[in-house]
Design brief:
The structure is a single chain. The protein is of the alpha/beta class and about 450 residues long. It has one domain: TIM Barrel. Helix content is about 40%, strand content about 15%. The strands form two sheets. It has an eight-stranded parallel barrel with strand order 1-2-3-4-5-6-8-9, surrounded by six helices. It has a two-stranded antiparallel ribbon with strand order 10-11. α14 links the parallel β8 and β9. α7 packs parallel to α9. It is globular. It binds beta-D-fucopyranose. Beta-D-fucopyranose binds next to loops.
């Protein structure tokens, strides 16, 4: 692995999780979410599993925070569930939910862990899904109201705030590819969701700033697009993928415009007057979060837009089937800084790998993850050496958890979770990071 002294003083090391993936959404008065509905619909999720119990973090949070402290992490990126705070998405507040997040944040502070909160990591209240969810422009106001209620309680103790996790997943993955809730496959819904998720980010950012919240950031996910060949049609297909996946959201956030290629393809599906929202979408942020896992090999495929497909690549793969490609992390850290965020602090807010981990005699030998992390931390060091203002790195994830449509099958944790007994077993990667952070 690395040594702490390989990184600049004050560099923040952390671990990442998300509410629905670990808490146990059936506890504590949380309302139904579109992930519960999506999972209950046959064919969407492996074994139709949902987040009802997950890691039972709702009851085991103290021991989980101890694991974070004992590893030597400086910070913890967690998320709050909208439906736990507002079971109907609007209106009545579930005080039990706010109390839970307050205890959790205080528990971090008591342990010397800096709280980085994500306000939305995908569990949209079902009542708002009924109203069209991300297709409905009103979601910008609903989200800002929720953000103000939550941060009204926690804001004075939060270190950094991320608005919405992975805008591409909230919109494109969920409304075009249909792989995440609400499982829609509709180009018009997609274009609207892509715009509204940015509008919600901007609206909440402005509202929170007016309420005195600082250190607000956006978190985007990036996948390196490699053309399948030198043929112009494959190069062009990879550029299209790169624009709708990687450039669209940071272009809105930092340039107040969308890539021309995407406006050409999706412009007619955007809501009327979308151009008038760009100022608000580009409301200044204090930092940018980069989530990075892999690359995809993109080939042209005749058919309607985007007329492309992913083909299998040659590199070693994780349990997800994702190629291991640390060069992509370096690429995006450079690209974000040089072309979009221009000197704004960056954080790697997610990076990690799934591995088919098993407990043998009380230990988990996940050396593949140790190697994956070491190589990606190297890429981060390289970026810093080149002058990229990277200030923190959060490993996904602290615990094995509910990996969305893959259910509990894909294990991303530094800590193994037995989903029968809910027992936690720190893996070799946890011990390796702990040693690195102590050195
Ligand atoms: C990211 C998500 C996170 C987890 C990892 C593997 O896209 O933010 O919740 O699913 O991928």
């Amino acid at each position: 692995m690395f040594k702490r002294s390989d990184f600049p003083d004050g560099f923040q090391f952390g671990a990442s999780t998300a509410a629905y993936q670990i808490e146990g959404h059936s506890f504590g008065g949380a309302g139904p979410t579109h992930w519960d509905d999506f999972a209950a619909t046959p064919g969407n999720v492996v074994r139709a599993e949902n987040g009802a119990i997950a890691c039972d973090h709702y009851h085991r949070w103290e021991a989980d925070l101890d694991l974070i402290r004992d590893a030597g992490f400086d910070a913890y990126r967690f998320s709050a569930s909208w439906a736990r705070v507002l079971p109907e998405g609007r209106g009545t507040v579930n005080e039990e939910g706010l109390d839970f997040y307050e205890r959790l944040v205080d528990g971090m502070l008591e342990r010397g862990i800096k709280p980085m909160i994500t306000l939305y990591h995908w569990e949209l209240p079902s009542a708002l899904a009924d109203l069209g969810g991300w297709r409905n422009r009103d979601i910008a106001g609903w989200f800002a109201d929720y953000a103000e209620i939550l941060m009204g309680r926690l804001g004075d103790r939060i270190w950094k705030t991320a608005t919405i996790n992975e805008l591409w997943c909230v919109s494109f993955l969920s409304h075009f590819l249909g792989q995440h809730a609400p499982g829609v496959r509709d180009i018009r819904a997609t274009a609207r969701a892509m715009h509204h998720v940015l509008l919600a980010h901007g609206t909440a950012t402005q509202a929170l700033r007016a309420a005195g919240v600082g250190e607000i950031g956006a978190v985007c996910n990036f996948t390196y697009a490699e053309p399948a060949s030198d043929r112009p049609e494959d190069v062009d297909a990879a550029a299209t993928f790169d624009d709708y996946y990687n450039n669209f959201f940071i272009s809105g956030l930092f340039r107040k415009e969308y890539p021309a290629r995407i406006v050409e393809a999706l412009g007619r599906y955007f809501p009327d007057g979308w151009q008038d929202d760009m100022e608000l979408i580009g409301a200044p942020v204090d930092w940018l979060g980069v989530n990075y896992y892999t690359r995809e090999i993109i080939a042209a495929e005749p058919g309607p837009w985007p007329a492309l497909k992913s083909v299998e690549g040659p590199l070693p793969k994780t349990q997800m089937g994702w190629e291991i490609y640390p060069e992509g992390l370096l690429h995006f850290l450079r690209r974000c800084d040089a072309e979009f965020s221009h000197g704004l602090p960056l954080n790697v807010t997610e990076n990690g790998m799934a591995n088919a981990d098993v407990v043998v005699a009380g230990a988990v030998d996940d050396r593949a993850r140790v190697d994956y992390l070491a190589r990606h931390f190297d890429a981060a060091r390289q970026a810093i050496a080149e002058g990229v203002p990277l200030e923190g790195y959060f490993v996904w994830s602290l615990l094995d958890n509910y990996e969305w449509s893959f259910g509990y099958e894909k294990r991303f944790g530094l800590v193994h979770v037995d989903f029968e007994t809910l027992e936690r077993t720190p893996k070799a990667s946890y011990h390796a990071l702990k040693a690195a952070l102590a050195s």
